[in-house]
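hiii so my PI (J.) wants the whole complex modelled not just the main chain, which honestly fair. so below is everything: two entries, each one labled with what it is. i double checked the lines twice but i was tired so who knows lol
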Amino acid sequence: MEHTYAVIMAGGGGTRLWPLSRRNRPKQLLPLIGEETLFQSTVTRLEGFLPPERILVVTVAEQAAEMRVQAPQIPAENYIIEPAPRGTASVVGLAAAILHKRDEQAVMAVLPSDHFIRNRDLFHYLLTAAEGVARQDYLVTLGITPTFPSTAYGYIQQGAALIGDYKYPCYAVVRFKEKPDDRTAQAMLRTGDHSWNSGMFIWKTESILAEMRRQMPDLTAVLDQITAVVDTPRLESVIKELWFDLKNETIDYGVMEKAERVAILPAGGLGWSDVGAWDSLFEVLLPDMSGNVVTNGHHLALETHNTLVYGLPGTERLVVTIGVDDMVVVDANDVLLVCKADQAQKVKNVVEHLRKHRQEIYL
Amino acid sequence: MEHTYAVIMAGGGGTRLWPLSRRNRPKQLLPLIGEETLFQSTVTRLEGFLPPERILVVTVAEQAAEMRVQAPQIPAENYIIEPAPRGTASVVGLAAAILHKRDEQAVMAVLPSDHFIRNRDLFHYLLTAAEGVARQDYLVTLGITPTFPSTAYGYIQQGAALIGDYKYPCYAVVRFKEKPDDRTAQAMLRTGDHSWNSGMFIWKTESILAEMRRQMPDLTAVLDQITAVVDTPRLESVIKELWFDLKNETIDYGVMEKAERVAILPAGGLGWSDVGAWDSLFEVLLPDMSGNVVTNGHHLALETHNTLVYGLPGTERLVVTIGVDDMVVVDANDVLLVCKADQAQKVKNVVEHLRKHRQEIYL
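here's the output for the full assembly
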């Protein structure tokens, strides 16, 4: 596997975990689950699968310094700075172009920096299996077998099983689907052939660059110019010069939905979560007998069930709950959030409201 | 009405309003409703009915200094210090003895310091009516016409209407009843002849001292010794000397339940609350269209109904609620309480727990 690389995508914010995640304290840099930050876990999760020299991190300038502190094992030249966010298609393209110049046989695993995976052994096993499929010129997605009809995730429908000697069942992809409404989510769960789109991909740099050349000529033109200066002192300035003209595009919409050889490994048992909002963070924390989770702080509970009490590290406040069910209570010092767990997605509406009313101190 | 006095009983704590009320910050000294503290409102509510010179305050040493600051219009000699809490019977007896020595024709209105009454005109009217009944040698209680089957109040059952020229319908008392269970409370509400025991009484000092002489000889023996030194420099030391031997007794149990001439004025429309717990405080605050009440602070509400967000004066925290119904959220800086409104009585269990576990900083 000496030609296998990981590309960690780490530019985003995560407004749905507000008031914990803030502009200058994005989700992936926070220790949301255990001692490590989500970014650190994404790096250490690769231990035993890849050496840190083969991990690339694509991020924005504001976050790079903190990331270097959090993951000093990754060589400095492996941090690639995106001058401005232009969507996951350009991130993937940039990483693919750089890797391909350095190693024409490269296979890259694209990994979000802010997801959680409990089962590291299975994760390594699936990456190895996916790598085998990718070597057959497939663009491979890691799907997550759904456990409930979520409306917060995109879905991928699988078709026929791939013929070949693979280490895990894998299938051709029929289509990608955007976040569904309630009914559609329930219908897809019943069919048994839909997976959640985890945003994790494995492919040869050669395969993804070829698909981009076919579907995204503008991006490819930029990537060609960048390729010419990879590992020269001009790289950074060339990226800066070309980046702002790029169209904002996701890898799903820009490439995957119309790509030709797309495969999926529908995985269960990973203990995966995108930690996208308070309800999904709640799911991966380990509750007590009453279904409650308490982090960082004192909690006194009377008649309290299925409730997350999330204190910022360092808050010393005593939180008392009486007669509280299915709630999320977040104490972020300057902000207190009390939210029904099944309405956690609405936190982003609050952030939008604050932005609109220019309440910058809370953003 | 020159022989009419008010006696404000102000020694208690109020653990059910924790974490707002604390050992050194008892309920009556807090501005729970509007700008005035409950104690200040109890004093100013008497304006136009009594001059401040005819208001006595019975309290404990730890609270007296703060009360003098909050109500400077009351003469210093009208503050009577109870060396230690010995129940409302001794408080009433002590005030009655002192008043009776100063004015043998005195009628005293006994008023808790920590209740709320919205309708001051009606309150004055009822006190005047009750004073007329008390002049006929009745021990008069102000009842509150129940509006729901509360299990948090004691009840008083009324009997026959009193014959006489009174300014408000008044009745003989059949019996006093302790806080009931749910079923009993509902049954009493249906009968239409039960009132909540407000803890407000009006009587001649002569009448109450006579009943005490009949039912509480030990207390009377102490009161006789105190009477001998009223308005001498020895008063304070004599009270101190005798007080600790007194039995702890309430006026209800010690006197009223077996007293001979007891009358009740069952009052509605006072806008009365004992502000005994968070749910009853909530009742007297004025809600917005969604039934929410917010004090002192910023609040952003999505899908939030019938919820009280109570911030300590001076807390600048932003409180965000999403999908929250019928809750009480209290932000007291070092403690955060989230409580279903109908379980507000359980706050006292939390205080007991903290006391048992010696978590003094939160008490």
